Amino acid sequence: MLPLWEGYDEWAHFAYIQHIVGSLQSTVGTAATPGPDETAGDGATPPVETPAPGQVISYTFEYCQNQHGQGIAGGQLTNNDSVPHLVTLIVEFYQIDTTKMLNDTRSYEYDMPAGQSREWQAVVSSGLPSVDVSCKVREIQVR
């Protein structure tokens, strides 16, 4: 006999996240990537990142939102290198129009083939206050 909370409801957790992401994608326009001192957030359209010479991984933001205490950020990753890499982003969530960081989180780890792009996502599962948020990538971990 398995406990009711182990495994049986995992599909519901995943379905809820898919629902939130789907609603975000239908409410946001085109994305861009923040520069070092800029953030992406509600209504913000930061400049698109141009890979610097020799830059292995580039990214864009497509969404950054706080929905009912859950922070969700995502966009596109591109491997500009000629070899595959494992990539993780560290994303910070800020209260919009302030320097107050609310939380930071890791994206999933992505297997990036050479020259390929794919979607990325970082999720703060709960605990954000009910405020508008902005996001920025603090670090890109490449292996």
What would you note in describing this structure?
With 143 residues, the chain is mainly beta. It has a single domain (10-142), classed as Sandwich (Immunoglobulin-like). It is 13% helix and 43% strand. It has one helix at residues 10-27, and strands at 40-41, 57-67, 70-79, 85-95, 101-106, 110-112, 117-124, 133-142. Strands 1, 4, 5, 6 and 8 form a 5-stranded antiparallel beta sheet that branches. Strand 2 (57-67) and strand 3 form a beta hairpin. It starts with 9 loop residues before the first helix and ends with a strand. The relative contact order is 0.21.
Characteristic terms for this protein:
143 residues, mainly beta, Immunoglobulin-like, elongated
Principal-axes geometry comes out as elongated
Order of helical and strand elements: HEEEEEEEE
CATH architectural arrangement:
Sandwich
Give the C-alpha Rg. 16 Å
End-to-end distance: 41 Å
- Count up the domains: 1
CATH class: Mainly Beta
Mean pLDDT, as a whole number? 77
Q: Which percent range fits the helix content?
A: 10-25%
Largest sheet: 5 strands, antiparallel
Topology of this protein?
Layout lengths: L9 H18 L12 E2 L15 E11 L2 E10 L5 E11 L5 E6 L3 E3 L4 E8 L8 E10 L1
Give a concise summary.
The protein is mainly beta.
